[in-house]
Design brief:
With about 500 residues, the chain is mostly helical. About 65% of the residues lie in helices and about 0% in strands. It has helices spanning about 10-20, 25-40, 40-45, 45-55, 60-80, 90-95, 100-135, 155-170, 170-195, 220-230, 240, 250-280, 300-305, 315-325, 325-340, 340-360, 380-395, 400-425, 440-455, 460-485, 485-490. Helix 7 packs across helix 20 (about 460-485) and helix 18 (about 400-425) packs antiparallel against helix 19 (about 440-455).
């Protein structure tokens, strides 16, 4: 049975030593990488998307998404400390649930990282296009957004994806230090927004608090639908675990990076969300049926052409500040987003390349994908391929659609990681654990349930896209990975 090709943990660790990446990242760099991956399009752009789905109720959505991510982070921290190698959820699943499910997770992570990188690139382009327009250098409308968002080709999103891909080919250490600078810019920008917007909050802007209600499974709207979407705002902390093989003292530093980055970002998100809703209001654009128009739809794009509502803005935080009379500060927020959001694209592409690097090393993907550049010591082949996918996704699709699709892969991975922690507690209770998930028999099941519930709260269309992607992955696995795997050939990956 293909579902029982389980690769022992000791073999995974030995394999990593055979073709290892250079260990060069410390706890501060890891935490900054996590913050860089998390703080981005979710808070700078998806605030508008969440408002369209839930109105002011998106504040509850922020909390729901944060709780689910916190539970998953605790599970990730234990496994990452036990198995400090590249591959994240894919590697952990291979060691516990077997090859076929590991492949499914690795394939699903394409949606989390590559598609997410495209979403961030689209969000970045919204702010930069706003800055260009304010300076009198607006691009033609057809080149500002993708097909379903009122345009034809998102030129800026395409170009930034190419630049970040090149940076990652040059080297991890260089890109990490660039990321540290960009993270600092983002934190300063969000702090400035909080200082101005939070004191300006008014009770009237929170009414009605739940214009679309709580939402229903597969509905994609209401508080639950917004939580499933805004979940994207927290995605990225697990990218820290993909850097485990390049981390100094990973048993100690990986948990610090995971939990530290998530904690910092959660505080910022709640304050920014409160300021945005309270200072400006965030009521959705309604359709003829009395329900909010679907995000990422041509109908909403058309309705937003003549609207100044926050939910229609491509640069919502800057729009809030301009509405408060701080146009200059709003432009600075836009500039900060333009400078800093590329760090998120960097980490998403980074995470994806490390997943495929390990899958190639395990012979489930062609071996040339795991080639390491002789000078830069980076997996340059898979980096270039991933970058190409990101550029195309960002050029044609709206941010909301990309974010929701990305969330499906993330939630699936989170479920498998939580299951893996529980199984290993039973099967290998004596294995050293530098970090132990507290209350694991409560945290684990809650992480599984929370991930499943958010998945169910996405639209039916988004769920079907995930199913279709999974079917394609299964075909690829059966036609290549299943036959080339060391379990099929009898090869020893350690030899």
């Amino acid at each position: 049975m293909i579902f029982w090709r389980v690769k022992p943990l000791d073999q995974i660790l030995a394999t990593a030593e055979q073709k290892a990446l250079k260990r060069q990242l410390g706890p501060v760099q890891l935490t900054l990488l996590g913050i860089g991956a998390i703080i981005g399009t979710g808070i700078f752009v998806l605030t508008a998307e969440a408002g369209q789905k839930a109105g002011p109720g998106m504040m509850i959505a922020f909390v729901i998404a944060a709780v689910v991510c916190a539970l998953a982070a605790l599970a990730y921290a234990e496994l990452a400390a036990m198995v400090p190698v590249s591959g994240s959820a894919y590697t952990y699943t291979y060691a516990v649930l077997g090859e076929a499910l590991a492949w499914s997770v690795g394939w699903a992570l394409v949606l989390e990282y590559a598609v997410a990188a495209g979403a961030v690139a689209v969000g970045w382009s919204g702010y930069v296009n706003g800055l260009l327009a304010s300076a009198g250098y607006a691009l033609p409308a057809a080149l500002r957004t993708g097909i379903n968002d009122g345009g034809t080709f998102n030129l800026l999103a395409f170009l930034i994806s190419l630049v970040i891909t090149g940076l990652l080919v040059i080297g991890t250490s260089k890109s990490a230090w660039v990321n540290a600078v960009l993270v600092t810019i983002k934190i300063i920008a969000l702090t400035a927004f909080i200082i101005v917007a939070v004191p300006a909050a008014k009770d009237v802007n929170f009414q009605p608090f739940l214009p679309a209600g709580w939402g229903t499974p597969m509905g994609g709207m209401g508080v639950l639908g917004a939580a499933a979407s805004i979940f994207f705002a927290y995605v990225g902390f697990d990218a820290v675990s993909t850097a485990a093989e390049e981390t100094k003292n990973p048993n100690r530093n990986i948990p610090i990076g995971l939990i530290g980055s998530l904690a910092v970002c959660t505080i910022f998100y709640l304050l920014v969300g409160y300021g945005a809703v309270g200072a400006n209001g965030s009521q959705p654009v309604m359709g003829s049926n009395g329900m909010p128009l679907p995000t990422g739809s041509p109908e909403l794009a058309a309705a937003c052409q003549a609207s100044q509502e926050l939910v229609c803005s491509k640069e919502p935080l800057a729009a809030v500040l301009r509405g408060l009379g701080f146009a200059g500060l709003g432009n600075l927020i836009g500039l900060a987003a333009g400078l800093a959001l590329p760090s998120v694209i960097l980490m998403m592409i980074y995470g994806q390349t490390r997943i495929f690097f390990v899958m190639s090393r395990d012979r489930l993907l062609p071996e040339f994908l795991s080639r390491v550049h002789p000078r830069f010591h980076t997996p340059y082949v898979v980096t270039v391929i991933t970058g190409a996918v990101v550029t195309l996704a960002s050029a044609f699709f709206p941010v909301g659609q990309l974010a929701d699709v990305s969330n499906t892969g993330t939630l699936f991975a989170f479920m498998t990681v939580a299951v893996g922690v529980l199984i290993l507690r039973r099967t290998e209770p004596d294995r050293p654990r530098a970090f132990r998930t507290p209350g694991v028999w409560i945290v684990g099941p809650l992480a599984i349930f929370g991930s499943m519930y958010l998945f169910a709260s996405l639209s039916l269309f988004t769920q079907m896209l995930f199913v279709g992607w999974a079917v394609i992955g299964l075909v690829v696995y059966l036609s290549y990975g299943y036959r080339r795997s060391p379990f099929a050939t009898g090869e020893d990956l350690n030899g």
